[in-house]
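Question thread 4412

I'm putting together a teaching handout and wanted feedback from people who do this every day. The idea is simple: show students a protein as raw sequence, then show them the structure tokens that encode its fold, then repeat with a second protein so they can compare. Below is the first pair exactly as I plan to print it.
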Amino acid sequence: MYCPRFIYFMLYLKIPQKEENRYKVQLGRKIHEKKSKTNQEYLRKKLGVKKKLIEQKLSSKKYQIHGIVDEILFLEDGTAAPLDYKFAKYKDKIFKTYKYQAIMYSMLIKDNYNIDVNKAYLVYTRSKSRLEEVIINEEDFAKVKLVLEEIINIIDKGYYPTATSYKRRCRDCCYRNICVK
């Protein structure tokens, strides 16, 4: 979602992004590590959480995706929801990249736990841990499935996709020096 060419360089050409060298990535990882070790028994009662799992590595052959979900919340209504910590400030809207990642985590949870997922939560650590709810419906799952098909097409066929239309993203991209615009 950030840029289709990112998939091309990282997963088709297998050029590492070396994100471990980036300051914000390092800081974000430290915050994730701290969050995963503090309040492990704490359940968000206001959200109706009855159980949670922390840092779950999940994969799905069905969707051909994998990821580490910061927290899986099992709710009183019999559904589950991913909770993802973002090293970001909340800017009065939920970006599509965050929403689609939350939907993919939801797909992983549905596939691995055979449980309905119709919402996700984002915690913006740079906005006093502001909690935002993301409602997810079948249309959202269908959109993400199309995105996943495009990603698989890039990886399998070496299709060189169009770059993002948001040129500001190019400034902070690790592939900016090799990307032909």
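The second pair follows. I'd like the answer to focus on this one:
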Amino acid sequence: MDVTNFNLEIDFPFLATAPQEVKTLFSRHVSFGQLPAGEYVCWEGDECRQLAIVLSGVVRVYKIGESGREITLYRIEENDSCILTASCILSHIRFPALAMVEKEVRAALIPAPILREWIGKYDVWRAYVFELMSNRLAEVIETVEEIAFRRVDVRIAQFLAQLGPEREPVAITHQAIADELGTAREVVSRILKDFERSGAISLARGSVTVQDKSALQTRPNSS
């Protein structure tokens, strides 16, 4: 993406009412990049040298435990950025997770030293980062609560209910569901078989079809 072609008010709405000095500096220092699906943005332990503001596409940020089990922390989508990257830049620490492109990404890139300078000087950048922190913290806490306090079958049921319309196959594997929810593939497979026997879903190799979304959505949260 050519730096001369972006629309600041549309592509970066949080800067729409910023002072002209802030807009001028942004145009001067920002660069743009593009990554295909499947590419890693950050590996655990990487130095955070720039903050990316996603213009289009999706990045999944996740952790892998000692057992090899994955858990999705959050996704970065259009007009969004990575709070872990911002935190690493401000704290001079290494990236504590993994970030991988799920859908081809175009992003604006701000060098780490420039971002630190802007946060120190301009209210608009402080507000942007603090709002990012607030939103993501709430999302991560919700994820922790889901894992700690809700039964796995209820979490899987709610996840399936949000996959798409009824009776339309969705390409997704048991392992992908396990990775998304932070559980084991064997647990997912057993619960999916139970759902299939009840008529709530039907299974095929590499896909799931929701047959009765209401049955999934109304599944009790406790035994």
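Top answer:
Good format. For the second protein you could add a caption like this: DSSP finds nine helices and nine strands in the chain. The CA atoms of residues 29 and 114 lie 8 Å apart.
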